[in-house]
Amino acid sequence: MDRLNRRPDPAATRAGRRSARRRRLPALVAVLLGAVLVVALVVAGVVALSGPAPADPEKATPTSAVGDRVDTDGGTLHALSLGPVVTWDPQRIASRDDMAFAGRVFARSLTAYAPNTDPDEQHRLVGDLATDTGTPSKDLRTWSFTLRDGVRWQDGSPVTCADVAYGISRTFATKDIAGGSTDALAVLAIPRRMDGTSTYPGPYATGEAAKKGQAAFDKAVACTGQTITFTLSAPLGDFNELVSQPAFGPVKESADRGAEGGYDVFSAGPYMLEGEWTPGSGGTFVRNPNWSRASDPVRRAHLDRIDYREGLDTQAVAQQVMADGDTGRLSVSLGSAPPAIQQNITAVQSLQERSVNPRTGVVDYLVPNTRSEVFKDEKLRQALAAATNRDAYVTAIGGATAADPALSLIPRSLPAAHDADPVGTGTRGDAARAKALLAEAKVTEPVTFTVAYRSNATSDKAMAALVAGWRLAGFDPKTRPITDDYFTAISDPKFAGEVDVFWSNWAPAWASASTILPPLFDSSINLTDAGPGRDYGYWADKELDARMAKVQAIPERAERERAWAEVDESLVAKGAYIGLAERRALYVSGSDVRNLSANTIAGGVIEFADIAVVR
Predict the structure, then answer these.
(1) What span, in angstroms and rounded, lies between the C-alpha atoms of 406 and 460?
(2) Would you say 607 and 76 are in contact if contact means Cβ atoms under 8 Å apart?
(3) N or C end of the chain: which has fewer CB within 10 A?
(4) pTM of the model
(5) What is the per-residue DSSP string for 290-348?
């Protein structure tokens, strides 16, 4: 998945979420623009065809930008993107990039993560629309949130409990409102049919069945004054984090155009859309006159306007911002600079100071197929893990500014992140250790296996780097590159008998390992006659399934995330998967942009809560 040039692919979202879900100047214009900008940069002495090695991303400040942080209001920021934005409907947004932008600009939710301009704040959940982060019952089956006073829609009307309930109800209208999070269907205590579909058809349906369904919804999502209470189908300790998603945000019924309103923006946040959004081109967000900073603990909203342009070639955007012309100095790239020019940014002090290089939370990993004759043996799975050179993989996909080697699927920004290395071979791999494990398994070298991966120029190089390490350790890997509909292809049950290892990637939906480990390794929600779901290696461990269900019900967050770390360490130790790398992005801004930082919880995207410009 090339998240670096846009967004996580469908596998890098929550499964379903509990299932699977989860952009251009005309070519000639893009080429001409790129050429002009390259010439301008060379003349200015900016482009370094060779030079010092890229700066160590670990030593860069998370909020680096030219000048000190400011609290100055006013000015226009140009946000430049490849796109396309598929929708701005809060119940239909699936892209993490778009969720993050909407959530800071116009779409408010019951809870939110505080901007991580201070590294100590990066995991802190706060009340957004709600006065706090919610009150659970003892059994974690009900959660209540009280809405804060003074929050108003762009027309001046108050945001009410009924608006929040109505917004959530739209998720159930799957024929009209599709593509976004379906977590509401999964967790709310609303009866389901034998085939697993909800008996509630959403707010647009009519008839007797619709009335009964509405009654069931109103029982599961109940309003008493400005307090909204949710009744869940099972205990859920991180439900207050789940409702940080736009899909659990409010929609004003009178402003809802249903299926026709994909790009409608009716704002409860600091900005509203001026006029209409033009797909492929973009739109401009201006101040919402009815937003109050006093009613918003999350967003400082310094800007007067955000001019969001999409359809722009990512490399041309980076070069335009690097050149720092009249528009460039007030611009920020929303797409990561391509690896080909990342060193040009990190090697020049003035450019490095106005860039950020965050981890994205997207982790590449390998899944040994436990139904294959080779990797049904735990020793061989461990041997493959021991032989895997993550450092070489990272070098092949672009080096230190493109990714960090990873032993775990849990991104470093999550509270469940850990440094355990149960196989004991580090990130470079250990051929001797791998050979010793093969000897313990009493197999004859070389051990032949087939590995499937999504093929493109970069991933072909990355897979070749892995293959070289595996051969040194006594394996004889055969590659099976797939170019079209990769994740659909490997979900086909026929691959269980044809492929021994699958490449994949994943990213959390919010700051908990609960959005990683159950979606990928809980056999009770993945393995069916139709295929493996997102559990491509057919991992099945009923004891682990039960253990994960218990972890979901731990009420205290720190304890719960420690338990997830222990579950993950167990999976790594048994060779259920082999971590490869956590991707990074590299964004650059103009010299008049201030407070540049990345929202690491939302996927390492640009943080719009308090970004500012110098006028």
Answers:
(1) 19
(2) no
(3) C
(4) 0.88
(5) T--GGG-SS-----SEEEEE-S--HHHHHHHHHHT-TTGGGEEESSPPPHHHHHHHHTS
Q: Supply 52's token pair.
A: 């010092």
Q: What pLDDT, in 10s, does the model give residues 268-320?
A: 999 999 999 999 999 999 999 999 999 999 999 999 999 999 999 999 999 99
Task: Kindly state the greatest CA–CA separation across the chain.
Answer: 74
Residue linked to tokens 């071979």:
425
Per DSSP bridges, beta strands 282-287 and 305-309 are antiparallel
Given a contact cutoff of 8 angstroms between Cβ atoms, the answer to whether 271 and 105 are in contact is yes
Say whether pLDDT at 266 is over 60: yes
Distance CA 110, CA 116 (A): 19
Side-by-side strand order, sheet with 475-482: 403-405, 578-584, 359-368, 501-506, 447-454, 475-482
Residue 35's pLDDT band, with cuts at 50, 70 and 90, is very low
Mean pLDDT, to the nearest integer, of 226-237? 97
What angle separates helix 457-472 from helix 378-387, to the nearest 10 degrees? 110
Q: How many CA atoms lie within 13 A of 465 on its CB side?
A: 20
Token readout for 577 is 């998967």
**CA-CA-CA-CA dihedral for 579, 186, 298, 124, to nearest 10:** -50
How far apart (Å, rounded) are the C-alpha atoms in residues 58 and 346? 13
Three-class SS of residue 384? Answer: helix
Q: What is the pLDDT of residues 328-383, one digit of tens each?
A: 999 999 999 999 899 999 999 999 999 999 999 999 999 999 999 999 999 999 99
Cβ of 118: how many Cβ atoms within 10 Å?
Answer: 12
Counting every residue written for the chain, the total comes to: 615
pLDDT recorded at residue 234? 95
Q: What is the pLDDT of residues 411-454, one digit of tens each?
A: 999 999 999 999 999 999 999 999 999 999 999 999 999 999 99
Distance of CA 12 to the CA centre of its chain: 7
**Token pair for 434:** 């791998």
Is the bond preceding 446 in cis, omega lying within 30 degrees of 0?
A: yes
Looking at residue 62, what is its pLDDT?
38
Percent of the chain surpassing pLDDT 90: 85
227 SS3 class: strand
Note whether 532 and 526 are within 8 A (CB).
yes
Counting residues of the chain whose pLDDT is more than 70, the rounded percentage is 88
Contacts (Cβ under 8 Å, ≥6 apart) of 175: none
DSSP 242-266: HTTSGGGS---GGG--GGG-TT---
